[in-house]
From TrEMBL:
Signal peptide start and end residues: 1-22
Keyword set, alphabetical order: Signal
Protein's name in the database: PepSY domain-containing protein
């Protein structure tokens, strides 16, 4: 009976550990291009509801809330990140969202120019 409890405990820990280590907002496995596009669209939507000071974004116009998936494209597939462009034709603007491979949004802007590198920004987070 004691041996059965030990084995059961180990099996339970192995099954539950991955779930308890998950975080909201990013994944541990590298995100796919499709997922990066979804994250960029969600970032634009969220910025239309509230400003995103951590990303340096003021609150966007509500026209950013319901953009179709076709509005977002992988602009650059860099080493350690995806740069996704999100075009809003009604605003005649394109938002560029830099997404690290773990799913974290590193930065966003309308120029597509990002000064920080993945190596330095990942070390500080």
């Amino acid at each position: 009976m004691r041996r059965w409890l030990q084995v059961s405990s180990v099996v339970l820990m192995v099954l539950v550990a991955p779930v308890t280590q998950a975080h909201e907002g990013h994944e541990h496995a590298p995100v796919t291009m499709k997922k990066a596009v979804e994250i960029a669209l969600a970032t634009a939507r969220d910025a239309s509801i509230n400003s995103q000071p951590g990303l340096g974004l003021a609150q966007l116009d509500q026209s950013w809330r319901n953009l179709p998936t076709s509005a977002a494209h992988i602009y650059e597939n860099g080493r350690g990140y995806y740069l996704v462009s999100v075009a809003n034709s009604s605003q005649a603007k394109t938002l560029y969202v830099r997404i690290l491979l773990d799913g974290r949004v590193e930065a966003a802007n309308f120029s597509g120019d990002f000064v920080s590198s993945v190596a330095t920004s990942s070390a500080g987070k």
